[in-house]
Amino acid sequence: MTSKPIYLKPNVVFEPLIDRWYAWSHLVSPATAAMNITCRHLKIMESFLLSPETHAGAVMNPKMRGGPFMDLPTGRVAEIAQLKQQTLQHQNEMIGFAKAVKELDDMLAAEAKGFQLEELYAKIPPVLQGYVELFYDRNNHPNFRFFESLLYNSPYYKKSAQSMAFWITNNDHRPFVLSTPRLDEPGILHLEMAFDNMAIDELAKMKRVPQPIEYIRRLMTIPGSQEELFNSFFTEDQPPVYKKYTGDKIRMRYFGHACILVETKDLSILVDPLISYYGYDSGIQHFSDIDLPDVIDYVLITHNHQDHILFETLLPLRHKIRNIIVPRTNSGRLEDPDVKMMFDNIGFRNVTAIGEMEVLSYFNATIMGIPFTGEHSDLNILTKSCYLVRIGEFNLLFLADSRILEPILYQHIHRQVGDVDVIFIGMECDGAPLSWLYGPLITKKMSREQDRSRRLSGSDCTKGLSIVEIFKPREVYVYAMGQEPWVEFISSIKYTDESNPIVESNQLVKICESRDITAQRLYGEKEILYETKKTARLLTSPGNY
Ligand SMILES: [Fe+2]
Question: 20: CA distance to ligand 1 center in Å?
Answer without folding.
Answer: 24
